[in-house]
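Sequence and structure are no longer studied apart. To make this concrete, we show below a single chain and its fold as tokens.
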Amino acid sequence: MADYIPGGDAEFNAWQQNFLSYATANAAALGLDPLVDIPPLTTGQTAWESDYPAHVTAQSTAQSARVTKDAARAGYVSLIRASVGRLQASADVDDAERAALGITVPDTDPTPTGPPTSRPVIEVRCDQRLQQTIVFRDELTPTRKAKPAGVLGAEVWVKVGDPPPVDPDTDLRFLGLDTSTPYLAIYSGSDSSQMAHYMLRWVNSKGDKGPWSETASATIGA
């Protein structure tokens, strides 16, 4: 059962005013002793009606201070970034000094990116006739859309008609390279009611290819 006393301070404030006003005016009819039952309530109301406005004022002051603080930080950060830009472009500043300042030290010897090692996981959605939407994620982060580091996109391959592909290198037809999920596959009427079998693999910016995904299959809607 819901509490009869409102949870919010503003709502409680209006409620308590009505409660005590009515209780005071109708104490005898309610079976309350005006000299015993009402004074403690009045004392409690006095404390509340003193502290509640003070709290509201403090909140307003804190919000105003936060806005002022955020504006000061934004202005200061802008000045810092301008200074760092000049420092990064200066031949007088070496990497040890950059590290001491806590700013970015350029990576002059980047770590080589190897071929992708994980696989896409596939979901095929059949939302319209002669169309299928292929949603893909990385098997290591299946709840996120992000591709693995260094990956350009996913190669999408298909085999229309049964049986499912056995050898991806000979059984599949290349549909395209998609840099972000999902991929939309569109078919002609001659493909309707046939099974489409998809396999995907990641490819990085150097063209290195990762391992094949598992096969995902769905009927092409007529």
